[in-house]
Write the structure tokens for this entry.
Amino acid sequence: MDSLMPDYPAAIFFDWDGTLVDTLPGLLKAHNHVRQHFSLPLWDEHEFYRQMTLSSRELYPMIYGAQSDEAIKILRTFLEQHLIEFLNPLPHAETLLRHLNVAGIPLGVVSNKRHEFILREISHLGWGVYLQAQAGAGYAAQDKPSGAPIRKALAAINIDPQRDIVWFVGDTETDMLAAKDSGCLPVLILHGKSRPELVEKHNPAYVFEDCRDLLTVFLP
């Protein structure tokens, strides 16, 4: 992409799960561990995607009511024990981050996964050298789909989406909503999933098949 093009980003921020790493099967297992504890029907993948439009800290009080604190504790304990076991980088994700970093584009991650867990996963992969900003659930007063955590993470590296062009890359409706609410350009990444309903509903600025497809835009 020509740096003189109108949409050339001053920074690129990413969602985490389903965008740069594949931890979703493990997260489904973790949430079903909680549901099994409370003798509730287990989620299949479709129901998991439908429910997880909010962070667990915002969703669980709606599902578990007065038992939400206990449910969150069970979830966190399970994830603390299995977090790295579930961590699988998506193809070409590190190559993408490395290239953009070398190109001098500030990068960050904003996720609805617990903030401490995000920092731990990024550290385990050694990707902190690429990511100037790292934010998980609880980092801001609200989580995605609010744009608050994106704006706060951008402000920490002196980027203003009202002044600067910023891409927010994600794979879900939550990401598209958060991008728009924060003032960023919403960028949808598919990773093998056909998402015509998201394209039609949210009209992302760009749609990419995967990390390699996104990378080609920035190659000479």
User: Anything to note?
Assistant: Residues 116 and 136 are 7 Å apart (CA to CA). The radius of gyration is 17 Å. The mean pLDDT is 93. The domain at 24-86 is CATH 1.10.150 (DNA polymerase; domain 1).
